[in-house]
Amino acid sequence: MAIYAIGDIQGCYYSFLDLLKKIKFKRGRDKLWLVGDLVNRGKGSLEIVRWCYKNKSSVTAVLGNHDLHALAIKYKIIEPGDEDTLSSLLKAKDSDLLFEWLRSLPLAHYEKKYLMVHAGVMPQWTVENTLKFSKEVSTQLRSKKYIEFLSSMYGNKPDKWSSTLNKNDRARIIINATTRLRALNSDGAIDFTYKGELKNMPKKLKPWFDFSKRKTKDSPIICGHWSALGLMTRGDIFAIDTGCVWGRTLTALRLDDKSVFSVKTNSKDI
Ligand SMILES: [Mn+2]
Predict the structure, then answer these.
(1) What is the pLDDT of residues 83-139, one digit of tens each?
(2) How many A from CA of 234 to the centre of ligand 1?
(3) How many domains does the chain have?
């Protein structure tokens, strides 16, 4: 049995199938960890979520910002935008079931000493904190009041972590850190604007994983979300979003030996 962590799929279903072929994925034996953003921008959001649902005993996935965005559209909190490619997923006869499954996914997963999140964690958080905060959000997402909860999710404030935030603010920064974080200002506030490459990052910003005194330093973290960062495997951070939906590659990391496998974007996906 092998575990493969796979980067942001974003509806690139055929690239995903190509990658499964490349890693010689054995159904019923191997496991897949998906870093989130299963859907949107690519053409195959419905197909990838159906595949994951059908194979859910082999799949461990965390929510990404696009998955949450899809949920907000599904439950009529916001209207789809011009770049969204979610209509077949929204109109499918099994749409309700598939979205129920998406809604049940956590923001963070910890197993075999790896922490997996879509984007990042705040420097003040330990692994235990991250899992507790993920659970707080999941409890609300899985509750009867999930629509009300999703309605309060949007916004860039607060941008700094504090343990004394009110319930909505606390949930919002937990979601923003785990699903949208790339860089922090020197005072620890999240920067929501910079999405480019590391080498061009303004000096006043630091990538979240290099922020001083980050409390998760000793636990390897698997993440995606930052396609311009490209593949980064450096012991403490395994960033595996290699921009499949932007015509680059889809990447799998085999946890046992840290082998990296990748396929070019399949032209049917974008
Ligand atoms: Mn993302």
Answers:
(1) 999 999 999 999 999 999 999 999 999 999 999 999 999 999 999 999 999 999 999
(2) 21
(3) 1
In a domain, 269, yes or no: no
User: Can you spell out the DSSP letters for 202-256?
Assistant: -TTEEEGGGSTT-TTTTS-EEE---GGG--EE-SSEEE----GGGTSEEEEEETT
193 part of a folded domain? yes
Q: Which domain holds residue 94?
A: 3-264
Q: Is 115 helix (H, G, I), strand (E, B) or coil?
A: strand
Closest CA to 257 of 17, 8, 36, 23: 23
Residue-level pLDDT at 131 = 98
Give 48-95 pLDDT, tens digit per residue.
999 999 999 999 999 999 999 999 999 999 999 999 999 999 999 999
Q: ∠ CA 67-40-216 to the nearest 5 degrees?
A: 45
Distance in Å, CA 40 to ligand 1 centroid = 10
Q: How many A from CA of 119 to the centre of ligand 1?
A: 7
pLDDT of residue 161: 98
For residue 76, being part of any structural domain is answered with: yes
What CATH code is carried by the domain that includes residue 218? Answer: 3.60.21.10
What is the pLDDT at residue 204? 97
- Angstrom distance (rounded) from CA 49 to CA 64: 13
Taking the C-alpha atoms of residue 51 and residue 123, their distance in angstroms, rounded to an integer, is 35
Å from CA of 226 to ligand 1 middle: 7
Tokens of 176: 């923003």
